[in-house]
Each structure stands twice: as structure tokens, then as C-alpha cells.
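Private note to self, pasted from the team thread so I don't lose it. C-alpha cells:
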């Protein structure tokens, strides 16, 4: 059966995930409210303590009615309350994050997630062969459904998995890692709580480029010389204050230090300027690494990522924390009160030397740490999706040495609500050109390479194309798919579904379509084989040219070993199927008019559609045709 139908597949209930999220949400809301009340009380108490300072100061220093020493008590109380209030605010913030984590998870389970998360607009690329056609990015997109990632590296990695397919071994290793992470809700929660939102991909790239750059050529032993010069200045200052030596030793030492600073200025300033890189982009990465460093994994890919963190003798999170402290020390020079002290201590020189020591020790490893944290975060995003959709199985990824294959049972669109999602079977296969069928093997024509899909407007053709494409994207990303089962080989997806003209580029709809078709053909000429998804092929030209051109394109794709689906309103195109030697098959969607309304069952059937609904639709809205 080439394009048969299947009833909606029985699915495992997501009630466990919903109940867990709902329970966590309720508990977090209670805790958040409790910490907010405590923080409010501490804030009020802090105000009272401050007023107490003013009263005691007035009584002790103004009216002299009490001893001045009594001022220490309200000051100590005020400081303690400031510290306590800060801690209470952090507890409240943590509870708010926990609430948000469960709230977002519950929204995904209850299919209210569209518009709540990261839509990934920055990854849009009009020239990509399928991202725009399959709604990978944007409001209510596949990326938004999956993306619980927050670091730049994690978001980039997840987006890349959706945009590019890896080798079968890499996908299977990713599936094993995701399976291990599925029950680890605690780990995913801790990763969601770690740090703040990270910087952008550009900031992250700038930071890793700075870390990996060659160290500055500072003279050997300069650290000891700078320390000695600072000690001389401090010693001269001490002699001036605590002895009768006068200011001359201090001035002399300060002069020597100034000469040294001038000599090193041309080498120190570039180091400090280069370190202006946005280290805040590492805040969340460092926190994520701190969470992962205490974990042990069995899945080979997770174990390999964890092993990459054992490098310098210190944990990566500690090394990144040291880098952030260096940045704080560098920025302290801008404080007007501290500036004279910084000059006295040759602060900039010492910080520059510390930066270079950090780069020599950790610079080559920084990119590895960032990518490891990002990949683990992206794997956790896929694991969250799998846990929240327990009825979605992992697909079987085969090597494709027996020829390309796409065999889906009860396929559904992953972005549609489950209650409205109609499932259909769809199987495509091409026998490898250099292989002859073995004894007892199935007839190669039992499954076609491609389907010509006909049907009326709104009957489900375009949705079916996206169903095939989105499930293939999920499969190659290492995620579960919306199906009863899916077996597929490595395929390069190429789609022409959502084509628009461009007034700015002076490109008509037809020109935009044939440019995309050329891209599809080019993809089919490479390896692995293509999975082409063409909606209303060449509908921007006349029926004569459309049939000749469309038939030539389809035959060319089939000859290259590609699998695919083509939709059409032009039933003349379906006549090429009998001449294809079994490599093509006709399938269709049907509709019927009921009580003046067009009804669709969205079931894929064999053969060519026997009627059109265009006239009925026109008449149903009052057009006299």
C-alpha cells in the first residue's frame, strides 16, 4: 500500500508529565509567595533599622543624650538586614524560576506553548532548502516547541540539528543520550535555574576567539618587576606616614613605577582592551557546567562530553568564575575612589598579566567547554520534548546501503494539536542502482520512490508534505517523531512549499519557484539522496508548460535516486504515473459538500482524486458560477 490510511494511533498519555508540572507549579507558587512576604518584612525591618541609625545618631552626636557607641547596634542590625534581604530576594527569584519552568512545561503539555518561548527568528534563512517551508522558526514553530535552551551555544546547536542532518551513527548516539536524559527532570530543572540568560552567538564567538588568540608578548619576569615596583611605592608611602623620612622615598619610588608603567603601556593596554570581550556571555555557561560537573552518564555521547570537562586540574566552572573575577578587577580601575590606589599598585599591569596566565592555561579549552555545555543543554531540550510526548517513538535510522527509504506509519504533524491531528501512512523506497533484488525479496515496485498527490483545496495536501518533512527533521535531530513508527535512511530534505515573490529583488513568483526547483535538483545530485517535497509544482505557468516542465523535473529527481512527494491540482500530471514502471504512485485526499459546507476527512487514499471543490467553494460564498 503506497499511500494508505491509518486510524489515529493510540498514544501514551501525557498525564504524568502534566501532573508533575502542575504539582511543581503549585508548590513553586506557594514558595515564591512565602519568600516574597519574608523579603517584604526584611525590607521594612531594614527601613526601621535605618531610621534607628538616624535617631541614635541624633541622640548621640546631636543632643549628646546617649553614648556615641550606641550607633554600632543599629548599624550592625541594618547591615545584617541588608544581607538577609538580599538572600531572601535570591530565594524568591529562584522560586519564580522554578514556577516559570513548570508553567512553561505545563503549557507545552497542554498545547498552549505557541508564542511563549524562543521563536528562533535569528536563524531564519530564506535560501535554506526547507526551513521556511516546514516552519522550523518563527511563532508556533518547531524550534519554539523544542527550545528550552538558553545559552547561545545550546540554541545554536539545537538549531543546527534542525537545519542539518548528521551521519546515522551520530544520530543514534544522540538518541541514546536523549533516552538517558528523559527521566532526569531534576537535572533539566537545575540547568534551567543555572545563571542568567546568556549573550548572543556573536558575543560568544568573540569571547572564544579572544581566548584562543596567541598570548601577548610581555617580557619575562615582568610580574616580579611590577610587584617589586608596587612594593617600593607602598614602602615609601609607609615611611612617609609612619617615620620622619619625608615624601622623597615615596616620590622616588612612584617615579620609578611611572617609568615602568610607561614602558609597558603599549603592551598592557592591548591586553586589557582585548579583554573587553563580553564575558557576561559566559555567566550561564559557567553555571550549566557547574551542574554537569557533578553528573555521571552511561550514554557514550554524554560520557564523552562529560570527559571533555576534565582538563586543567580545576573544574571549568571554577576557571570561568576566575575569568569573571578578573574582568571585575579590570573594571574596578574605572571607580573614581579606587583609581588612585589602582595607580599606586600598578593594577592594570597585574590584571593584564593575570589575563594572559588565564589564556595560556584555559584559552584553548574554552571553546570545547562552551560547546560541551551547549550540546548537553540541547540534548536536555530534546529529552524534555520526549518526556512530554511519551506517545511519540524514536525513529529507526538505517544506513541506507540498501537504498533510500522513508517508511512512516500513522504519521501526524508535530505542530498540530493531538486532538485535531489525523494520522496517515506513507512509505517510499528506492532500490539501490547497484543491487539486484535477492531471492524472496519484495518486488521493488511494491513501494514507489515518489507520490503524485492530488486533491481539492484545503484537503490536506500541503499539511501532509509538512508532516513528512517535519518528522524527518525531528528524526535527524535525534528526537521522537509524531508517528506510530518511522524508519528512514539518511536523506537531504529539499522543499518547495511556501514560495513568495520579491518586489525588492524584482523576482516573480514563477521565477522564485524555478530558482527553488533548481536548488532541489542540485541537492538531489549529491549524497545522501534527497527527500523532495513539492507543492503545486510549476502552478505559476500555463497547463501545457506546467505538465512538460513538472514531468521533466520529477523524472530527473527519480533518476537521481531521490524520494519525494509532489502535490498537484493538474490531473494531467497524474498520467505520468502508469509510465513510471512502478516508481511513482497516485494518492489523493477527498472532500464532500454537506449542508452547504465543505467537509474534509484528511485521509490519504490510493489513486487519483475524482472531483474538485473549486466551484462548490466559490458558490458557497455567493459567487454566481
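Design output:
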Amino acid at each position: 500500500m503506497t499511500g494508505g490510511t491509518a486510524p489515529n494511533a493510540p498514544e501514551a498519555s501525557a498525564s504524568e508529565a502534566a501532573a508533575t508540572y502542575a504539582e511543581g507549579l503549585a508548590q513553586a507558587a506557594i514558595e515564591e509567595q512565602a519568600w516574597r512576604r519574608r523579603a517584604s518584612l526584611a525590607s521594612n525591618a531594614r527601613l526601621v533599622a535605618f531610621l534607628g541609625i538616624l535617631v541614635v545618631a541624633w541622640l548621640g552626636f546631636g543632643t549628646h543624650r546617649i553614648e556615641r557607641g550606641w550607633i554600632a547596634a543599629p548599624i550592625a542590625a541594618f547591615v545584617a538586614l541588608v544581607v538577609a534581604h538580599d538572600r531572601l530576594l535570591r530565594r524568591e527569584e529562584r522560586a519564580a524560576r522554578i514556577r516559570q519552568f513548570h508553567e512553561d512545561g505545563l503549557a507545552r503539555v497542554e498545547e498552549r506553548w505557541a508564542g511563549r518561548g524562543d521563536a528562533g527568528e535569528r536563524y531564519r534563512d530564506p535560501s535554506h532548502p526547507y526551513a521556511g517551508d516546514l516552519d522550523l522558526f518563527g511563532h508556533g514553530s518547531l524550534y519554539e516547541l523544542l527550545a528550552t535552551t538558553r545559552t547561545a551555544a545550546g540554541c545554536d546547536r539545537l538549531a543546527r540539528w534542525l537545519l542539518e542532518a548528521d551521519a546515522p551513527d551520530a544520530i543514534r548516539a544522540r538518541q541514546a543520550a536523549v533516552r538517558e536524559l528523559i527521566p532526569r527532570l531534576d537535572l533539566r530543572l537545575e540547568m534551567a535555574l543555572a545563571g542568567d540568560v546568556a549573550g548572543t552567538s556573536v558575543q560568544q564567538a568573540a569571547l572564544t576567539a579572544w581566548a584562543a588568540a596567541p598570548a601577548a608578548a610581555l617580557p619575562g619576569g615582568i610580574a616580579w618587576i611590577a610587584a617589586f615596583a608596587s612594593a617600593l611605592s607602598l614602602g615609601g608611602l609607609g615611611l612617609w606616614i609612619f617615620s620622619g623620612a619625608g615624601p622623597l622615598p615615596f616620590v622616588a619610588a612612584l617615579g620609578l613605577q611611572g617609568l615602568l608603567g610607561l614602558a609597558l603601556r603599549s603592551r598592557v593596554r592591548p591586553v586589557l582592551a582585548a579583554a573587553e570581550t563580553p564575558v557576561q556571555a559566559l555567566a550561564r555557561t559557567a553555571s550549566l557546567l557547574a551542574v554537569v560537573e557533578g553528573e555521571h552518564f552511561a550514554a557514550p555521547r554524554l560520557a564523552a562530553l562529560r570527559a571533555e570537562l576534565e582538563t586543567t586540574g580545576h573544574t571549568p566552572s571554577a576557571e570561568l568564575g576566575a575569568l569573571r573575577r578578573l574582568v571585575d578587577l579590570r573594571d574596578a580601575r574605572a571607580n573614581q575612589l579606587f583609581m588612585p590606589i589602582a595607580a599606586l599598585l600598578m593594577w592594570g599591569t597585574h590584571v593584564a598579566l593575570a589575563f594572559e596566565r588565564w589564556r595560556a592555561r584555559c584559552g584553548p579549552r574554552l571553546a570545547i567547554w562552551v560547546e560541551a555545555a551547549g550540546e548537553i543543554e540541547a540534548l536536555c531540550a530534546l529529552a524534555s520534548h520526549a518526556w512530554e510526548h511519551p506517545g511519540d517513538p524514536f525513529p529507526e535510522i538505517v544506513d541506507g546501503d540498501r537504498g533510500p527509504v522513508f517508511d512512516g506509519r500513522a504519521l501526524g504533524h508535530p505542530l498540530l494539536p493531538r486532538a485535531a491531528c489525523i494520522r496517515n501512512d506513507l512509505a517510499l523506497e528506492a532500490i539501490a542502482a547497484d543491487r539486484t533484488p535477492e531471492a524472496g525479496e519484495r518486488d521493488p515496485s511494491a513501494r514507489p520512490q515518489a507520490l503524485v498527490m492530488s486533491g481539492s483545496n484545503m484537503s490536506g495536501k500541503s499539511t501532509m508534505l509538512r508532516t513528512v518533512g517535519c518528522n524527518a527533521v525531528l528524526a535527524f535531530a535525534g528526537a521522537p517523531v509524531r508517528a506510530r513508527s518511522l524508519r528512514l535512511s539518511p536523506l537531504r530534505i529539499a522543499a518547495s512549499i511556501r514560495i513568495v515573490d520579491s518586489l525588492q529583488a524584482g523576482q516573480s513568483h514563477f521565477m522564485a519557484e524555478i530558482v527553488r526547483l533548481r536548488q532541489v535538483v542540485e541537492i538531489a545530485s549529491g549524497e545522501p539522496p534527497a527527500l523532495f517535497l513539492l507543492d503545486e509544482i510549476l502552478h505559476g505557468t500555463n497547463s501545457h508548460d506546467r505538465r512538460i516542465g513538472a514531468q521533466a523535473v520529477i523524472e530527473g529527481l527519480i533518476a537521481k535516486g531521490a524520494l519525494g512527494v509532489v502535490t498537484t491540482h493538474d490531473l494531467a500530471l497524474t498520467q505520468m504515473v502508469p509510465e513510471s514502471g512502478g516508481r511513482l504512485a497516485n494518492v489523493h485526499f477527498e472532500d464532500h459538500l454537506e449542508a452547504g459546507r465543505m467537509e474534509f476527512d484528511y485521509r490519504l487514499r490510493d489513486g487519483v482524486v475524482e472531483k474538485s471543490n473549486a466551484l462548490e467553494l466559490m458558490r458557497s460564498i455567493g459567487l454566481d458560477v
